[in-house]
Amino acid sequence: MTYGTRLDGYPATSKLLHWLVAICVLTTAPVAIAMVRVDKGPTQDMLYNFHKSLGVLILILMLLRLINRLTVGAPIADPNIEPWQKTVSSAVHGLLYLLLLAMPVVGYVANSAYGAPTPFFGLFTLPKIVGENQDLAKQLFTLHRWAGFLVILLVLMHVGAALYHYFIRKDDVLKRMLPEAMGGFPAPLSPQGHTE
Ligand code: HEM
Ligand code: HEM
To answer: With a 6 A CB cut-off, is 18 part of the ligand 2 pocket?
Structure first.
């Protein structure tokens, strides 16, 4: 599903967008969990604004990432991974693309329906895209929350798999996504065979 046909690895643009989105998701998810649990007040407001701003940034980055993916494609799967690993990782990658595009939209619509502002890092505020509707807001926030927990679960699986490949299997899977300056390189073209 998400593997392609390139033999020269992930292009630099794909790696850059991967790590920018990763930083935003790894920040906004804990912020979301904290913001609904702290007492009302300026700290909570700040956390909500930060969560919403990062969510909007994720949407922008994911749209760029989708365009990048459709334009430059993706490499073949690492030939050393098992067929089931290829199937599962492909499904996880595909779901992450889908959820990270849909979640900010659901969050934004829910937020508008609730009647709350959607700020972007204090630079500007996005217009409300639907009229006030508390029932709709409640339903969409429930969807947003569960989709958010699914994103967290998928990210834990994804990061766990990357670390398992790096520390336990000691193969090249993590290096496929690292910048060249940090030792990144394309997948070997045949099982166990590096081209070096
Ligand atoms: C990909 C981006 C996003 C992710 C991963 C994400 C994740 C989450 C998660 C996990 C929660 C649940 C927290 C909990 O109940 O413990 C949550 C709640 C919330 N999110 Fe997001 N979110 C994203 C984008 C957005 C955007 C763009 C907005 C608004 C414009 C937004 C507004 C909210 C609000 C207001 C809540 C609290 C809902 C409630 O009170 O039940 N989120 N988010
Ligand atoms: C937390 C947010 C993250 C998200 C949403 C995410 C998402 C993705 C997606 C969608 C892909 C598929 C590549 C593409 O077609 O664009 C991918 C690949 C990859 N990610 Fe992540 N990632 C995250 C964090 C991480 C972290 C923290 C690591 C390392 C510890 C990591 C390691 C990798 C590796 C090694 C690949 C390449 C897998 C391969 O092609 O063999 N990712 N990631």
So the answer is: yes
pTM given for the model: 0.93
Tens of pLDDT, residue by residue over 107-145, are 999 999 999 999 999 999 999 999 999 999 999 999 999
Domain housing 32? 12-181
Q: Does residue 168 lie within any of the structural domains?
A: yes
What is the CATH number for 94? 1.20.950.20
Q: Are strands 118-120 and 124-126 parallel, antiparallel or unpaired?
A: antiparallel
Measure 135 CA to ligand 1 centroid, in angstroms.
Answer: 17
Let me know if residue 171 belongs to a domain.
yes
Closest residue CA from atom 2 of ligand 2: 22
Answer yes or no: are the C-beta atoms of 25 and 155 closer than 8 Å: yes
Distance CA 33, CA 11 (A): 34
In a domain, 148, yes or no: yes
136 domain residue, yes or no: yes
